[in-house]
Please model this.
Amino acid sequence: MSELAILVNEWFSVDGLLLCFIGVIAAMIGVMFGAAGFVLLPAMLLVGVPIHATVAVNKFATGISSFTNVITLLCRKEIALKKMVPFMMMASFGGISGAFLATRLSEQTMNMVACFILVFSFFMVLKHNRKLGMEVVGDREHKPLFITPFFIGIYDGGFGPGSALMNSLYFLKKHYSYQKAVELTRFVMFSSCMSAFVFYFLFGIVQWGIAIPVTVGSILGSHLGMKLVPYIQTKWLQITMPAIFLILIAQVVRDLLF
Model:
């Protein structure tokens, strides 16, 4: 049996359909609340996928699903590509840098770094919690700094859980509405995820039997999530964002201790 036939059998198996479903749920949560890794990474690890291969699958699935969102937003002329190019370039450099570091760090070291970043982000969320999701009145957006997507991209390329939430939070701090922050985040996530994935692909740690069904599910889930974003209320964000970071921190601490 050829390699392609083996892959097709994997994609349409019960496990493949389950992975597709996991991709749908993860992408919906990722778009709406910036925490796809909260579902995707633990699910991959539970089925025995190594940490670096899990991150690679996550980057591919999130990158492709974000790309379909980017194309949709550009076709609707809701966001100008010229405006986003600098952010996308910095996120790409960050994603590659993160992937490079991840392939040279042990799983324990990766978890320690991730724990530190998540704890820092959690306190940032608490500090700005009252401003989360506030609607923009007039032209009040503050010009974001290009360097921030680079540092978030490093974390995204090397680990990932909560990186979309970090990007959304950053745009919220610049007085964008929640819907606009989510839309801008899709551009940044596409860049950091795909640049990191290319590095993992060249490193030879991508498992296509897992990556394809998860990606198909992620595409469906990301578009469903984008349709639900306008209906998300501010009070939901003020509760879910800190809670998501706490859950992610607990997961990383568990991996460090057990």
About this structure: Residues 3-257 form one domain. The mean pLDDT is 80. Residues 178-203 form the longest helix (26 residues).
